[in-house]
Amino acid sequence: MRHTGGLGFALALLALSVPVGGTAGAATAEALVDALNAVFGKHKGMRASHAKGLCAEGRWIPTAEARTLSKSPLFAAEAPVIARFSLAGGNPNVSDKSRTPRGLALRIALAGGEEHDFVLLSTPVFQAKDPDTFLGLLRARAPDPATGKPDPEKAKAFMEAHPDTKVFAAYVAKMPITASYATTAYWGVHTFWLVDAKGEKKPVRWSFEPQAGVVGLSEEELKQKGDDFLAAELRERVAKGAAAWTVTLHLGQPGDPLDDPTKTWPEDRPRVTVARLEITEVAKEGEKGACDPLMFAPDKLASGFEPSSDPILNIRTAAYAVSFARRME
Predict the structure, then answer these.
(1) Homologous superfamily (CATH) for 50-131+149-318
(2) Domain locations along the chain
(3) What span, in angstroms and rounded, lies between the C-alpha atoms of 137 and 154?
(4) Which of 52, 171, 300, 329 has the highest local Cβ count within 10 Å?
(5) Helix or strand run (H / E) with residue 187
């Protein structure tokens, strides 16, 4: 598989001061990366967020039903995938036993030269409804220069003043610490527009359900694990056979939130199984893998899909581009 990160570097040069929100002092891509670095520290050659990760490869296998929804090349035929499993946050040494959300980024190389990226989380919601709030949350969690440690009361006060930040925290507090990247469900927290077979646009969201089931670890099981068990477990698992997920497209209805990633859609929304994701190869220990030089972009979409006006979605690629440029220095 051949992919390059050159586009990401070009985007980074354009994204150093992208404002979002239309107000004075609004968050910029550069400010968000600076805030992440303030919380987690600067780590040369590492991503500002999801610093700890593992490369893998596999295949995307669309269903016949998917092709009735759209003529998008994403649903046309089986395609190769480069993947990156990760832990949220900018600490490359975070323990796999922590209650840190897992991430899954995918790049699907489609026929005709198109590519489609997914940037997924093990939570169905994001940490804040807009970039300004997210920036404020990060700054509230940054270490105090006087003590070198974060002030939990400052973060608590910020969250009390911004209730949308509590949704993600509540979900993380209850989610299981999964036994494997392969027994983790992943969601696309943003809304996208699907151009259907008739040329009409419909709001959609994504979910990836592990075919091995969601398996959590007990406290006793956690005690027996090392801080880096996830990579070894996935290598061992995939050596015996592909790890797989059922990919579902959720179809929005009038009144569903389209631009707030802290809000989920009702459970009764129509769903269509559109693909099977298989991971068939994992980077060997000590090797970086094909995903390492890539910049996955949540708005890199195949024809037939368009981004929504979600302000978090609209700034993520710009922020990733800033991070990409810095780690390439």
Answers:
(1) Catalase core domain (2.40.180.10)
(2) 50-131+149-318
(3) 9
(4) 52
(5) strand 186-187
DSSP class per residue in 100-160? PPEEEEEEEE-GGG-EEEEEEESSSS-S-SSHHHHHHHHHHHSBPTTTSSB-HHHHHHHHH
pTM of the model: 0.91
- Active-site residue list: 50
107, pLDDT greater than 90? yes
**DSSP-derived 3-state class of residue 251:** strand
Residue 257: other Cβ atoms inside 10 A? 15
* 172 or 23, higher pLDDT: 172
Name the one residue in this structure whose structure tokens are 């940054």: 142
Burial 282-312 (b: 16+ CB within 10 A, else e): bbeeeeebbbbebbbbbbbbbebbebbebbb
Q: Say how far apart CA 157 and CA 124 lie, in whole Å.
A: 24
User: Are 109 and 3 within 8 A, CB to CB?
Assistant: yes
Selection from 171, 138, 168, 166 nearest residue 154 by Cα: 138
Residue 142 and residue 3: Cα distance in Å, rounded?
35
SS (H, E, C) 301-313: CCCCEEECCCHHH
Contact between residue 135 and residue 35 where contact means Cβ atoms under 8 Å apart: yes
